[in-house]
Design goal:
Keywords: Sigma factor, Transcription, Transcription regulation. This is RNA polymerase sigma-70 factor, ECF subfamily. Belongs to the sigma-70 factor family. ECF subfamily. The radius of gyration is 21 Å and the shape is elongated. With 307 residues, it is α+β, with helices and mostly antiparallel strands. Strands 2-1-6-5-4-3 form a six-stranded mixed β-sheet, with helices on one face. A hairpin with a 7-residue loop joins strand 3 and strand 4. Helix 1 packs parallel to helix 3, helix 6 packs across helix 8 and helix 11 crosses helix 12. It is built from twelve helices and six strands. It has two domains: 157 residues, Butyryl-CoA Dehydrogenase, subunit A, domain 3 (Up-down Bundle), CATH 1.20.140.160; 137 residues, Roll (Nuclear Transport Factor 2, Chain: A).
Length: 307
């Protein structure tokens, strides 16, 4: 197998490592590309290509995360990870860890960790790397990595998100949710929401804030129902789509351009949190991006009665 073929075979793993460390599709793709350039330019071939490439992409991701943290501190409003339509890396032996670790809630929890803690946690708890490999990747001693892993696991366990184990039940509840949304059915929506449900959005100051800081089943149900009819009247389409391993949807304008994405956190048969990403900078990998301001203006006009 040629170096290029080996790299392509490992690319899904490398992207999945980088995305969990960075919470950004675009930055993860850049980290993977930089990893290839370093691998291609290496004077000798490593004994283990997987270990070498995993270590390189981890180090690059740690460096990128350190600089990204400064930008995130200055971010306008809520910051969410870039939505991931599908995880390219699959491992049946670690399917639960992979699915749990890519959810919006888990990625936001990972934001509480230091870059080193986050990298160690991802490599150890999500991908099952041994401590000798992790120590080499982050350039710390094995005892230091074990301590980092303990601290990271403790932080994660304190706030670990809880989801329904049965994916079929989650999918069916999400289908009922989007049916009720399309119909503008306030009561139907309220029946699916937790009493303390939160609906929050990431617009980054670059899009209108749909659903920012709306709390409680009654308020959220009314806001959602009020959105549905005008969005439908202007040709908007709600496309159910799994997002970050959780039920969700892509909202598109009449021309198929992406307005926003939506993800649902479901626990004990109720929707606990609804997160929407509207920042156009985070949606380019989903498809051509709509002008959300124009969509909202048109939807607001559609609310007004005509003579």
């Amino acid at each position: 197998m040629t170096p290029a073929e080996e790299f392509q075979e490992l690319r899904p793993l490398l992207f999945s490592i980088a995305y969990r460390i960075l919470g950004s599709v675009s930055e993860a793709e850049d980290a993977v590309q930089e990893t290839w350039l370093r691998y291609e330019g290496a004077a000798t071939r490593p004994a283990s290509t997987k270990a070498f490439l995993s270590a390189v992409v981890t180090r690059i991701s740690i460096d990128v995360l350190r600089s990204a943290r400064v930008r995130r501190e200055q971010y306008v409003g809520e910051w969410f990870p870039e939505p991931l339509l599908a995880d390219p890396y699959q491992d049946p032996a670690r399917s639960t860890e992979l699915a749990d670790s890519v959810s919006m809630a888990a990625l936001l929890l990972l934001e509480r960790l230091s870059p080193l803690e986050r990298a160690v946690f991802v490599l150890r708890e999500v991908f099952g790397f041994g401590f000798p490999e992790i120590a080499s990747a982050v350039r710390r001693s094995e005892p230091a990595c074990r301590q980092l892993a303990v601290r990271a696991r403790r932080h994660m366990d304190e706030g670990r998100p809880r989801f329904e184990a049965d994916r079929k039940e989650r999918r069916e509840l999400a289908e009922r949710f989007f049916d009720a949304f399309r119909e503008g059915d306030v009561d139907g929506l309220r029946d699916l929401l937790a009493s303390d449900v939160a609906m929050v959005a990431d617009a980054g100051g670059k899009a209108p804030l749909w659903g920012r800081g709306v709390f409680g089943d009654g308020n959220v149900a009314r806001v959602l129902a009020a959105m549905a009819a005008p969005f439908d009247r202007i040709g908007g389409v709600v496309q159910p789509h799994e997002m970050n391993g959780q039920p969700g949807a892509i909202f598109r304008d009449r021309d198929g351009r992406v307005v926003n994405t939506l993800t649902l956190d479901i626990y004990e048969g109720r929707i606990q949190t609804i997160r929407s990403v509207l920042n156009p900078d985070k949606l380019g990998h989903v498809g051509p991006v709509a002008d959300a301001w124009a969509v909202v203006r048109e939807a607001n006009d559609a609310r007004r009665p005509t003579d």
